[in-house]
From TrEMBL:
SMART domains, sorted: Lactamase_B
Pfam families found in the cross-reference section: Lactamase_B_2 (PF12706)
Protein name: MBL fold metallo-hydrolase
Domain spans labelled Metallo-beta-lactamase: 11-188
Gene3D superfamilies: Ribonuclease Z/Hydroxyacylglutathione hydrolase-like (3.60.15.10)
Organism from which the protein derives: Luteolibacter soli
Length: 252
């Protein structure tokens, strides 16, 4: 199994997971052109995708979906409320595959477990992908780590997880009004470096070896701050930061 982050940050998010000849795109928050260009540059023919999976309906996760789906006869998987909102926004696809939050489904040996996450969207989810004894977790926009999230992610070998902001940098930020800061740091907003560090520390003893930090705020975080906060005393875990303007390269 391998995965690649096509781009991550508040200007757009998308990643591809591949295993056993199956390829799925998770979120389509870059422009359709960027998605296509970055997939092609990474050796992925968009026509070879087996499915698109959505985490939630925010623009930075679906921005390129409407245009991309015009020429791509690929099913889009989403929770009922997410699909309803995205369809209402004018996205039409060859087929919608609606699944209940928490449901498990599979594509030829690549199994996907969805799980509910607390975020200010209608019905957001995270995913765990499993293929031949290997597991990869994807946890994007999330306000806090629930017991369920930690349980679902226990045992993953690799993890993409949001590390949105540094507490001190968010506090000191002068561009954002107080209400926006409140939303970001609320229990239905985004994960701070410290929250992500606590989750990684909890998952490390259960086999977590590689972590890609994503959705870093341009103003209220930086890759060095995020990586060092999460690395802490965890010499056993390899940590990199995904970037907004380029892919992170394939990770096996
Ligand atoms: Zn969001
Ligand atoms: Zn987001």
């Amino acid at each position: 199994m391998r995965f690649i982050v096509l781009g991550s940050g508040s200007a757009g998010n998308a990643a591809v997971v591949e295993a056993g000849g199956i390829r799925v795109l998770i979120d389509a928050g870059l422009s359709a052109k960027q998605l296509t260009d970055r997939m092609k540059a990474s050796g992925i023919d968009p026509a070879s995708l087996n499915a698109v999976l959505l985490t939630h309906e925010h623009g930075d996760h679906i921005r390129g979906l409407r245009v991309m789906m015009k020429n791509l006869p690929v099913p889009v998987y989403a929770t009922p409320s997410t699909a309803m909102v995205v369809r209402g926004g004018g996205v039409d696809t060859a087929s919608w595959k609606i699944f209940e939050s928490g449901a498990q489904f599979s594509f030829n040996g690549l199994s996907v477990q969805s799980f509910a996450v607390p975020h200010d969207a209608v019905e957001p989810v995270g995913y765990v992908f499993r293929h031949e004894e290997r597991a990869f977790g994807l946890l994007s926009d999330t306000g806090h780590v629930t017991k369920l999230i930690a349980e679902r992610l226990r045992g993953v070998h690799a993890l993409f997880v949001e590390a949105n902001y540094d507490d001190a940098l968010l506090e000191a930020d002068t561009k954002r009004p107080w209400s926006t800061k409140q939303r970001i740091s609320s229990r239905h907003g985004h994960l701070s470096n410290a929250q992500t560090a606590a989750l990684v520390a909890e998952l490390a003893p259960a086999g977590l070896r590689r972590v890609v930090l994503g959705h870093l705020s341009r103003d209220c975080n930086c890759p060095i701050t995020a990586a060092s906060a999460v690395r802490g005393a965890l010499a056993s875990v390899e940590i990199v930061c995904a970037e907004q303007d380029r892919t992170c390269g394939w990770w096996e």
